[in-house]
Amino acid sequence: MTDKFLSISRRTRSTPFSNRVEAAGVKAYTVYNHMLLPTLFASLEADYWHLCEQVQVWDVSCERQVEITGADSERLVQLMTPRDVRRAVPGQGLYAPLCDERGYLLNDPILIKHSPRHWWVSIADSDIILWAKGLANGFGLEVEICEPDIWPLAVQGPRAEQLVSRVFGDGVSAIRFFHSSMLEFQGKKMMVARSGYSKQGGFEIYLNQADLAEPLWDELFRQGEDLNVRAGGPNLIERIESGLLSYGNDMTAANNPFECGLDAYIDIDADIESISLPALREIAGKHVNQLVGLVFDQAMVFDQFQIESQHRIVGEIRSHVWSPRYQKHLAMAMMKRDYLSAQPTLSIDGKVATIVDLPFNFDAIQ
Amino acid sequence: MTDKFLSISRRTRSTPFSNRVEAAGVKAYTVYNHMLLPTLFASLEADYWHLCEQVQVWDVSCERQVEITGADSERLVQLMTPRDVRRAVPGQGLYAPLCDERGYLLNDPILIKHSPRHWWVSIADSDIILWAKGLANGFGLEVEICEPDIWPLAVQGPRAEQLVSRVFGDGVSAIRFFHSSMLEFQGKKMMVARSGYSKQGGFEIYLNQADLAEPLWDELFRQGEDLNVRAGGPNLIERIESGLLSYGNDMTAANNPFECGLDAYIDIDADIESISLPALREIAGKHVNQLVGLVFDQAMVFDQFQIESQHRIVGEIRSHVWSPRYQKHLAMAMMKRDYLSAQPTLSIDGKVATIVDLPFNFDAIQ
Predict the structure, then answer these.
(1) Mean pLDDT of the region A242-253
(2) In whole angstroms, what is the distance from residue B352 CA to residue A262 CA?
């Protein structure tokens, strides 16, 4: 829904790329980690097709880093997540749910281990820096915690590798998925990772010098002119088709990671000091809800997001969009598991949806 | 600045009043504590005059509460603030900066003590619940921490008392500033406080039952028809004229409370267990910056917010607005104290500003 304006102030922080984003004709933003995130340029659908067929540059500065340094860094990071952080390899991203002592989900960041004493927690939309500071203070840990001056710029789409290689050189193609290299732009080394919030392929450039923001943006557009590069942003159609979850939308601090299908990222039997693991061991297999996909044959307008069946609330729509590619209306819904076990379909306003596992498997969807 | 749309999703949470706010013709929102905050109805200036002369109803559900209960509640609240919380009186709000172990400002909430074992921290825009949870876990405190289902609705303006009295009865007029009473609406008791984010007088109703949101809104508009009641929201002109600070705008986690003029809310010599107090005792009197007011005779458009003098950055504009009442452009700026001590004025783009203390004293301003 985008028919209301956004009041922009210093509190809804701009980024070093904001002037270029404005010049590129941004129509809408959302606010993410207290920062502007561009969401709309031409139209939701035009932006979608362009992303899937060409290449886009996204100002995702709002992917803030929580930087943890010092002797107890690894201990603090491990306290925060039920995933065994001994898995982390320097230069490689590790997706890890963060959960509290009751097993509830506080964020789902990418952990980046620069060294045992230097971590980045690359966060979704909640102030994890405050949780980290509270834990560090309470446990008396020897760490420094800050939000460093890092502004990620994503290059996404099937032509992303070609474009990023033109700007950062041959080292780009050797970067494997979720890995990174330190590559140079105008004499400054910065982290370039094969990652991003789409399934169209691409990179994230972790800009570490504000006055290089506009030169980097301009160089990507100069080098990408024949590739039809455009400004873009995370696209609702693409992310739902791709089954990419959004913290705050599909899952919240009222959910545990099992409900969200994040079981694979919990090292349930690991001998690690994690705040949430005792609770998660209790919850495992007993969770009440499950995030699933719903597929409707026609475009839907939902009067309400709660899903009722026989006068009982059996679930809730969390995100949804019309897919122009598949000509289906796709939703992610948090449903009662006891309802799911009994029903392969559900009906909303007389429209029937097939209930499917996430991510959507379009080969299996008629 | 409001020429871009806001992409609204489940993550930018709606409130139980949202349908009524939409029906009232809201034009713009901001996002505050991950929730929609209406900011514009007719125009900034029309909303301003109406607020100062009539009465408005504001959906300030985004003033979220962090509820802390249990045996160690008061200890946790005291750890979070350098203000002596023994000052708190049940039913009375206590403005209190929250600061970390280095003395930096993490929020500036109103503390509400329901009982020694039951507190609300009524927060500005940062996820203080995460800090509280981290501290509680690290210190091993016996507390429960949650975000309760409370949606404040403000009634602001010179006719607010008349309107709120019509809906909540005679008990309203006896409520003193920053105090509250439990008053009844349709059989449900809820907290009504004489408070709000304007200096025009008014109340905040802490709605505690979602399905009463629309009945309450409708009753206020029915009873307020002859008072010319309208929907509104925090107004930039009014708040700057009134010198009301905004966390995230005028002060951030990069500032200490002395820089923001919050000295009166720090009990520097108190024998209390507060995380920030040791650091604040070190900083006191030695802080580098000071938040001040700037008064220009003409309307200003700032190309940049940094303020330079003789090739040195001496400060930064944090908030600013044209005052139609005083025919001055008013700004709040964080300035280097060594510059302030030498200069009574400054010049931006050849326009001279008088530097004044906050809050603005318009009797003294020509």
Answers:
(1) 97
(2) 58
